[in-house]
UniProtKB/TrEMBL annotation:
PROSITE patterns: ADH_SHORT. Its main location: mitochondrion. This is Hydroxysteroid dehydrogenase like 1. PANTHER family: INACTIVE HYDROXYSTEROID DEHYDROGENASE-LIKE PROTEIN 1 (PTHR44889). InterPro entries: 17-beta-HSD3-like (IPR052149), NAD(P)-bd_dom_sf (IPR036291), Sc_DH/Rdtase_CS (IPR020904), SDR_fam (IPR002347). It comes from the Eukaryota. It is found in: Mitochondrion.
Amino acid sequence: MAAVDRFSLLYREIGRACDFYIEALVIAGAWYTATKCISFAVKTYSLLRLHFLPKLVGKIDLVKQYGRWAVVTGSTDGIGKAYAEELARRGVNIILISRNKEKLEAVSRSIAETYKVETDFIVADFSKGREAYLPIKEALKDREIGILVNNVGVCYSYPDYFTNLSEDLLWEIMNVNIASASMMVHIVLPGMVEKKKGAIVNVSSTACCQPIPMLTVYGASKSYLDYFSRALHYEYAPKGIFIQSLIPFIISTKMVPQGTILSKRSFLFPSAEEYASQAVSTLGLSIRTPGYWKHAIQVTLLEHIPEWIWAWGIEYVCRIVRKKALTSKLK
C-alpha cells in the first residue's frame, strides 16, 4: 500500500513538473501558428494588391508618372519584346536596344504601327564590354528617359559543371547579365534624378532565391541584379526614383531549354506576353516581385523548401537536361 502511495505521489510531482513544459509548448505553438497566419495574410494581401486590385482601380498613367520614353534592352525576343509592347500599349514611346539590326527594325516598326507611339532603336552588343556603351550614351543624351528596363541576358546552352564552361562564356555572362545593367543605370539615372522621377526595372530571376547547381554563374549573375536593385532603391527612392527587381519563375521563351515541358506554355508557365501584361502593372507597387500571380505562389513555396532538398532536386533535373543535350549534339 505504501508503494502505491509513493507511486501516486511521484506521479503527481511529475505531472506538476510537466505542466510548466506543456504550457510553454502551448504558448510556443500558439505563437508559431499566429506568426504563420499573419505571414499568410500579409502575402495574400500583397498578391491581391499587386495583381488584382490594379484591374479594379484602373491602370497608372506611366507617361505622367515617369516620363515619355522607355529604354528596353534585349528587346527583340521574349520578355524584353513583350514588356516593350506592353509599355507601348500604355502610351510610352520606346527605344529598343539589341545587337541584331534587322530584328530591331522589324520590332520597332511593328510597335510603332500597332500602338501608334514613337519608336527608335540602338544597335549594341553588350558582350563586347565597355565599347558597347559609347553609342548608347550618345543616342540617349538628349532624351527624356522615364523608364529603363534591363532585360538583356544570356544563359548556358544547357546545364553544365563550372569547370566545363569556356572563358568566353564566363565573360559573356558577366558582361551581358551584370555589367550591362550597371552601366545602363549609370547612363540613365542622372537624368531621372534631375527630373525627380523615373523607374528602373532589372529583370532578375527566381534563380536568385535558391542555388541552382550546374547553372551556377547564371544564378549568381541574377543574384547580383536582385541585390543591386534592392540596395539602389533605398539610395534613390528619396529622390523620386522607383527601382524594381523582377524575379520571374519559368516563362515560355527561347531561353528555356527547347523540347522540354518547360518550353511549352501552360497554366504554370505563361507566355512572355501574358507575363509582361501583369509585370508592368506592378510598377510603382513592389520593389521585388515575381511579377505574375502564379509565379508569386510558386516562389513562396520555393522559398520554404530546405536548401539541400531543393539543390538535390534541381541538380538531378539539370543532369537529365545536360545528358539529353549532349546526346542530341552527338547525333
